Glucose-methanol-choline oxidoreductase N-terminal domain-containing protein
Amino acid sequence: MGLLSHFTLGLVVAVLVAYFMSIKKNGGSSVVSDIKKKYDYIIVGGGSAGAVLASRLSEKDDVTVLLLEAGGEETDKPIYHVPTGCYILQKTEADWGYYTEPQKFSHFGVKGNRSYWPRGKVLGGTSILNFMVYNRGSRYDYDNWASQGCTGWAYDDVLSYFLKSEDILIPTLKDSKFHNTGGYLGVSHARVTPFVDYYLKAAEELGFKIVDYNGEDFEGFAETQFTIRNGERSSTSRSFLRPVMHRQNLHVSPHSIVVKVIIEKQVAIGVEMIRGGRKYQIYASKEVILSAGAIGSPQILMLSGIGPKSHLDELGIPVIADLPVGENLQDHLMLGIPTGVNITGSFTEKAVSSWWTYVQYFLFGTGYLSSSFLEVVAHVHTERCEGYTTAPDIQLFFVSGVPKTHTIEIIDNIKNEKRAKLDEGGFFGFVGLLHPKSRGTIRLRSRDPFDPPIIDPNYLSEEDDVKTFIRGFSVMEKYLTTKTMQKIGVTLDLLNFELCGRHEFLSDVYVECLVRHNAVTIYHPTSTCKMGSPDDPSTVVDPQLRVKGIGKLRVVDASVMPDVTSGNTNAPTIMIAEKAADMILER
Ligand SMILES: Cc1cc2nc3c(=O)[nH]c(=O)nc-3n(C[C@H](O)[C@H](O)[C@H](O)COP(=O)(O)OP(=O)(O)OC[C@H]3O[C@@H](n4cnc5c(N)ncnc54)[C@H](O)[C@@H]3O)c2cc1C
Ligand SMILES: *[C@@H]1O[C@H](CO)[C@@H](O)[C@H](O)[C@H]1NC(C)=O
Ligand SMILES: *[C@@H]1O[C@H](CO)[C@@H](O)[C@H](O)[C@H]1NC(C)=O
């Protein structure tokens, strides 16, 4: 049984149905049963990027917009709006539920050596499943994109698009020039446990700064900023789309799976879509825009004949454009360090299922149901000195509980007698690798659009990635052995895995063994339709996000990032959609 028992879940759903009925009523009018033959713009995928794009393009009332989403509506289930829902939404109908290929250099401690890759399949996409951390990344991420040929994407160019979306609800940040009020996307703190104070105190003990990581200083420790408004998840469907669902020029079609882009004489003219067992051909007079995510967008492009020639030839798909679609796959990996503590307040089954928890949530939108418990986040250069002009290499973050779900499979590798201590409460410290050198691929398994693609992130194939992990671990080790952490009973005991017992405990080879067995995804796949200069043979789209060599076809989602950002990828994806909307409408 997971952290939230089925009993708990049933209760949450039952009581919340009434509370959230108002959301459902709030304009189902744009959800169409009769799709027209032709629209100005067809957007494929209503996720973090697609929902934002549909909202912005339909602001112009003389254009017509169709949004096609494979999953259902986010209003169908109240749990989609409850922050703690992130612990139970994986492997449900709202999740594509991908597995990677068995990994050669990592995942030795995970069943089948495969990584589980949840992806949202619902209006709002992965912004419905995610842990809601609001993180724009480092300014150097964008400056680096620009220097690689992404003209117009330097930090100073993109900051205004982050601000455009934002409605900062943290009082102390309202006057910061790095934040904005009045945007669609609610951003707030969601502190629930008393652990936050200890996390920050231990950081100060080591000499780290406490920062606003979305402001002037990215490096240092911080209380996490979340895409949460009044205790409710700010998914892109809830925050950008629902308020404009009444627009006559916007049609939204859920349960609609796009199987290919229709291309005539190197120009995209429409899409082929399947809904309710019927095939539709719908035409776009202005543009087709793929926002199907870092797995979906390359899949649709390849099914349409746009991809690496040799791969498409193998499958007998006629090649329309030979481009490196599905190459350059990047993802963040994390190593989790669980520990028991001797203070109370952690996110446990008992805490979540108490009556007070429900009362508190319904009355005030606070308490154990109002957060993902990823309460503190930090970004560090593992070789510390002043005045960096590069992005940091490691993210540390802290989850104030020890969820026993498949999200953290490695917990199964902890021997039973030690797990008892965790059940009483504790936390997870995570070390995340921000700039992996390893690169993977997305390929088609067959010509069947319903066949899941072959995902091979090729994690830790580059030795340097392991070295960076080892340096990151040593920062975490110092951190977890500070006086502050010792005072609350933190130990590294639980890292004593039998699997790595042949090495000296916590030596570099021991840590390498831990990483290769237990490091798992932070769920940030990107970069499979790389943006950059059209002359660069490694790119798929130009800086206007237009697919090279094909007219009227763009990709707008996490797949265009030339390199993954130094943090969580939802806010950067929303920014990409905001900027794309202005480029498309030539505003
Ligand atoms: C468990 C988890 C936790 C995460 N935590 C965080 C976090 O705390 N903070 C953060 O910043 N990021 C987090 N992320 C990552 C972040 O949410 C994603 O990077 C981001 O949502 C990607 O946006 P996207 O628009 O590229 O893709 P998505 O949001 O996945 O949207 C793609 C949409 O296209 C649809 N689609 C796909 N194929 C088709 C098709 N053929 N036809 C029609 N529709 C299709 C999908 O159903 C989906 O709705 C997390 C991700 C996961 C999975
Ligand atoms: C998984 O990794 C282990 C350790 O390297 C190896 O022994 C095993 O054969 C692998 N399993 C699969 C399915 O590849
Ligand atoms: C917690 O454990 C530490 C280390 O054993 C000890 O010093 C401290 O007094 C304990 N605190 C409580 C509240 O029991």
Notes: The CA atoms of residues 107 and 113 lie 5 Å apart.
